[in-house]
Amino acid sequence: MDQGAVMGISVWIGTSNRGFAQQAQEEIRRLFEAPVRFEWLAAGELFKFTVEESRERVVERILAGAPAFLRHMQPVEAEADLGEDLQATVAWLQRQLKERPPGAGQRIAVQVRKTEEGASGLSVPELKHAVDELLEQEWQAVPVAREADEVLSLLAAGGRLYFGRSAPHENISDWPGGAIRFRREEGQISRAKFKLLEAEQAFGLDFAQYRSALDIGAAPGGWTSLLLERGLQVTAVDPAKLDATLLRSPRLRYLQKNADDVAFAAGEFDLLVCDMSWSHRQMAKLVKGLLYALQPGGTAVITVKLMHKKAFQTIREVTQDLAPELSLQQAKQLFHNREELTLFFLKL
Fold this sequence. Notes:
Layout: E1 10-15, H1 21-31, E2 36-42, E3 46-51, H2 55-65, E4 72-75, E5 78-81, H3 86-98, E6 107-114, H4 124-139, E7 142-143, E8 150-157, E9 160-166, H5 192-202, E10 212-216, H6 222-229, E11 233-237, E12 252-255, E13 269-274, H7 280-288, E14 294-305, H8 311-322, E15 326-332, E16 340-347
Parallel strand pairs: 6-7, 6-8, 10-11, 10-13, 11-12, 13-14
Antiparallel strand pairs: 1-3, 1-4, 2-3, 5-9, 8-9, 14-16, 15-16
Helix pairs in contact: 3-4, 5-6, 7-8
C-alpha cells in the first residue's frame, strides 16, 4: 500500500547525528499542530515518523523551519518484510515503480542504506546495482549519483525495507542519509576542514566571495587552509602552532597569541570563523570581544560545543550572548559535527 497516498497522512524516515535523534524529533514536533508519531529504527539516530498532514505540507513546513538536528528525511511510500532474495526484492521494487513509471532520460539517484540490524544478507552495493540496471533496461532512465531529477530511497531496518521517491530538495540533503562525503587530500592538515566545507554548502555560502577572514583558534589550520585556497587574506590567531605548510602563504598573517591579546582595525574583516573546544559561553565571550573587527553585513561561522546535550538551551544562550551585534541565520548539526553545532550569523 502506498502510505504517502493516504489523504492527510504522510510517513517519513528521519536521520540525525548519533545521539541527537530526540532533538530532531522535538524539532519536528514543534513544527506541527497535528499529532506526530515516532518509531525507532536505530536508537539515537534513525526513526520513522508519521504526520497527519499531506506530504506537500510536511515538506513545506520542515524546509521552512530549517531544523538544526534533522539531517535528512525521506518519504515512505511502501514497506515490506525484507528477505534475503535479491531478485524477489528487485521484483517488489519493480511493482512499486510501475505505479508511477520513471521517464526515459530521467536522472535518478538510487540511495540504499541499511542499519546494523537491517538485513544480514543484504548487500547494499548489489541492491543498488540491480535497481540501477532495472531503471536503465525497463524505463531507459539514467542512474546518477549527483544532480538527480529524483531520488529513489531504500532503507533496510529491523527486517523491513522502506521505499520512497522524492525530489532531492525534499530530503533536506541530497546525500544518502545526509552523510556528505569529501575526499581526503594528500597533505590535508586536519579533518576539521570538512566541517567548514560542509558549512559552506549547508548555509549556501561561497567563501571565494569574501575578502579578508579572521580565524579565531585557528591551529593546526584546517579552516585557515580552506580559506587560503578560496583566495582570502587570512588572519589566524592561536597560541598553538599552525601547520608549517601554511606559513609559506603570502596571504596569511599568523598571530601566535591568545585571542584576547590581539587588536584589529574596526571593520577589518568581512568573515569571522571560530572552531574551538571551549565551552559555548567562553567561546561567545571571546568572539563578542572581537566583533568590532567584523564589518557590518559580515558573516560569522562558529562551532558551538553542546554541553551535556542541552542543545536548545545552548543555541539560545549563544544567540543571546552574541546579540545584538550578530543575528543568527541558521543553526545546523552537520554530518561532520559530533558533540557540537555550527552556527551561521550576520553582523548587524
